[in-house]
């Protein structure tokens, strides 16, 4: 069993509260395989010196401040990220707002700040990590200046997939395309959303397929409308399920949402939190001319989802990273 991860939203004198600090630095949106390598390296190093594993990151994406195009939509929700960080062995998460003043910090000032609040034995970064005003700080600079403060820098090489480094940007593109297979390969765990079940039009049960509905939020990168093979974690049990993301065009239209029909389940889920993990895209959402056509399509979607879940079964053990 893991001890709970402590979270701070401001910088305090961590050095006097925790011993032998090792800090992983980065934005870590999505916590993909490359991020996991950096954080695992930090945790291993901390274990070796009987110390404390820290992740130091930001509540908002730095690009919200420094990029005229604004911040990209997030890959993972806060809840999903925290579960993964805890499972990777992080003891303390420090997440502070990235403000215009912070963006103006010079690389030297940033390293001084690390020393002042963390006095880390080690910092761990990815090879393409940048920091400080206009992102001019590099891992080499961190290593050079860090030594003056007796901070050792560990630089992790990018993890490649098809000979190209795995990046959050690449994963966002696959999500936009609904390419779950690639999304999950690069994340190293199934793309997952956690949400609370809300009321819909109470129509699903009449169609013979009740669907637990979950509102979608604009600031997360989400999959395109369509039908997906998913699993649902509820009350410590993983169920096979089939999800539809969209506006139900067969019935006019509704707010965009995700709805999940859970197989071999009967119960009241309103107001309950469920965790939905995506495994394969099945088809696009479309308008049907009759309700009977929609019903027979949902029947075949369900069979298709069952088959897809059998095919991807070997990958599903990675769900443990998000639980
Ligand atoms: C597997 C699955 C596939 C679906 N595909 C479509 C679709 O292609 N077009 C559509 O209009 N609605 C589709 N729906 C949504 C149904 O219209 C919706 O579940 C139903 O209207 C119930 O809505 P309610 O939850 O508000 O009661 C699908 C639902 C499921 C479970
Ligand atoms: N197998 C199931 N899958 C999903 N929801 C189920 C299932 N069995 C019962 N339910 C319940 O039924 C509700 C969905 O029924 P539905 O008629 O689609 O209503 P709504 O339009 O409010 O979502 C869920 O929120 C849940 O409480």
From TrEMBL:
It catalyses: riboflavin + ATP = FMN + ADP + H(+); FMN + ATP + H(+) = FAD + diphosphate. InterPro entries: Cyt_trans-like, FAD_synthase, Riboflavin_kinase, Riboflavin_kinase_bac, Riboflavin_kinase_bac/euk, Riboflavin_kinase_dom_sf, Rossmann-like_a/b/a_fold. The keyword Nucleotide-binding applies. Pathway: Cofactor biosynthesis; FMN biosynthesis; FMN from riboflavin (ATP route): step 1/1; Cofactor biosynthesis; FAD biosynthesis; FAD from FMN: step 1/1. CDD domains: FAD_synthetase_N (cd02064). Its EC number is 2.7.1.26, 2.7.7.2. The keyword Cell membrane does not apply. Keywords: ATP-binding, FAD, Flavoprotein, FMN, Kinase, Multifunctional enzyme, Nucleotide-binding, Nucleotidyltransferase, Transferase. Residues 186-310 form the Riboflavin kinase domain. One of its GO terms (molecular function) is FMN adenylyltransferase activity. Signal peptide: none annotated. It comes from the Bacteria. Pfam families: FAD_syn, Flavokinase. GO terms for biological process: FAD biosynthetic process; FMN biosynthetic process; riboflavin biosynthetic process. Catalyzes the phosphorylation of riboflavin to FMN followed by the adenylation of FMN to FAD. NCBIfam families: cyt_tran_rel, PRK05627.1-3, PRK05627.1-5, ribF. PANTHER family: RIBOFLAVIN KINASE, RIBOFLAVIN KINASE/FMN ADENYLYLTRANSFERASE. Belongs to the ribF family. This is Riboflavin biosynthesis protein. It comes from Selenomonas flueggei ATCC 43531. The gene is ribF.
């Amino acid at each position: 069993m893991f001890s709970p991860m402590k979270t701070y939203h401001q910088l305090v004198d961590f050095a006097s509260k925790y011993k032998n600090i090792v800090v992983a630095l980065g934005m870590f949106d999505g916590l993909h395989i490359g991020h996991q390598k950096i954080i695992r390296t930090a945790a291993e190093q901390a274990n070796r010196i009987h110390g404390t594993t820290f992740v130091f990151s930001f509540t908002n994406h730095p690009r919200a401040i420094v990029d005229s195009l604004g911040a990209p939509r997030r890959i993972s929700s806060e809840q999903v990220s925290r579960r993964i960080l805890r499972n990777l062995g992080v003891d303390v998460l420090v997440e502070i707002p990235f403000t215009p003043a912070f963006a103006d910090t010079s690389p030297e000032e940033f390293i001084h700040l690390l020393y002042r609040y963390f006095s880390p034995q080690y910092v761990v970064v990815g090879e393409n990590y940048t920091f400080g005003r206009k992102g001019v700080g590099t891992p080499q600079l961190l290593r050079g200046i860090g030594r003056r403060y007796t901070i050792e820098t560990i630089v992790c090489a990018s993890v490649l997939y098809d000979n190209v480094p795995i990046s959050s940007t690449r994963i966002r593109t696959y999500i936009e395309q609904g390419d779950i297979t690639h999304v999950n390969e690069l994340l190293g765990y199934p793309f997952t959303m956690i949400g609370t079940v809300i009321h819909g039009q109470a129509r699903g049960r009449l169609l013979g397929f009740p669907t637990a509905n979950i509102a979608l939020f604009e600031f997360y990168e989400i999959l395109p409308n369509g039908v997906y093979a998913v699993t649902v974690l509820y009350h410590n049990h993983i169920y096979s399920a089939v999800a539809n993301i969209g506006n139900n065009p067969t019935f006019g239209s509704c707010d965009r949402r995700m709805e999940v029909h859970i197989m071999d389940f009967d119960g009241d889920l309103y107001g309950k939190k469920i965790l939905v993990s995506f495994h394969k895209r099945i088809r696009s959402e479309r308008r049907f001319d009759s309700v009977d056509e929609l019903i027979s399509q949902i029947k075949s979607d369900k069979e298709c989802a069952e088959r897809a879940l059998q095919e991807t079964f070997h990958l599903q053990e990675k769900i443990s990273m998000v639980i």
